[in-house]
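User: I'm putting together a small comparison set for a docking exercise, and I want a reference complex before I start. The sequence is below, and the ligand is adenosine-2'-5'-diphosphate. Could you produce the 3D structure with the ligand included, as structure tokens?
Assistant: Of course. I'll restate your input first, then give the structure tokens for the complex.
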Amino acid sequence: MPEKKFNVAVAGATGAVGNQMIACLEEREFPVKSIKLLASHRSAGRKQRFKGDWVVVENLKESSFNGVDIAIFSAGGDASKKYAPFAAKAGCVVVDNSSAWRMDPEVPLVVPEVNPHAVADYTNKGIIANPNCSTIQMVVPLKPIYDKYGIKRIIVSTYQAVSGTGIKAMDELSDQTRCLIHSEKCKINVYPHQIAFNCLPHIDVFLDNGYTKEEMKMVNETKKILEDDSIGVTATTVRVPVFIGHSESINIETKKHVTADEVRVLLETAAGVKVVDNPKENIYPLAIDAAGQDLTFVGRIREDESIPNGINMWVVADNIRKGAATNAVQIAEILAKEYL
Ligand code: A2P
């Protein structure tokens, strides 16, 4: 039988993640019958390449999804909230990268290496949510540990790249770096403070409980993806002057005792994980090495000597690829292979 092919739309096609989604569809040879590239009115008429052909970017509209089978969204939460229901009504399945639908109990929140079975619930609303970038790369290595040893509590601190904020933030880091090296005053537009040569303990907005929304996304999404509300999760999320690749310091308290060597052995064969852990040779995961890759890199695996059952690790992934575009396209692949 010939392979089934799909009419695909990418909403937010001109953005940092949208661009990578297009690249992932190409690289992974997703069975595309036709492609529609959607963005705001500002980009309508612009041309982008897909598999060697030029495709005209169209303005995202309520009627954009007629005849589309799968739409991958990365056009921001407001656009997702507004347009995903129109897409679903037109019979299209939405894979949404924004936070708009993630905590809707009817919408599955999926990391293919962790809870692929949840894709089946796309039938509830016609929408599947792609988790937050920092959550994705954390749950990929934690899932095998959770399954074998149980996890009571997670303490995570992130070191997040500016590309998570979008192309404007990448430009701002370049511009500020250039200005400061030449002893010129730099402009601050995207973040509340200078990001070049600095760290901002502030991602997304502050909430009444003193945490940022990004931190609470990590807490709530982790529980939803691992299907376990009993896990304690606490997060501190920090923006750092890195272009691509989020790094995370993760401390877990397991239910059963586990050694660092046992974790290393377990993660050596875990789906989507690569262990990079030879500190004696100065080998550990680095953002600059993870950039452009789809795996989640884990190193500095060691026992937390302050508690009986604790493990520390350093986890790095490309936030635009595994943290967003690749994960979304992997979800679309499951949909295409098993459900549509
Ligand atoms: P545009 O380039 O026309 O503004 P990034 O996160 O890199 O800034 O990219 C955001 C993406 O989402 C871009 O493709 C942007 O299009 C798109 N976008 C933002 N707001 C809307 C909107 N209201 N309707 C459609 N597309 C939007």
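The helical segments are 16-27, 77-89, 133-149, 167-181, 213-226, 260-268, 287-290, 321-339. The first strand starts at residue 6 and ends at 11.
User: Thanks, that's exactly what I needed.
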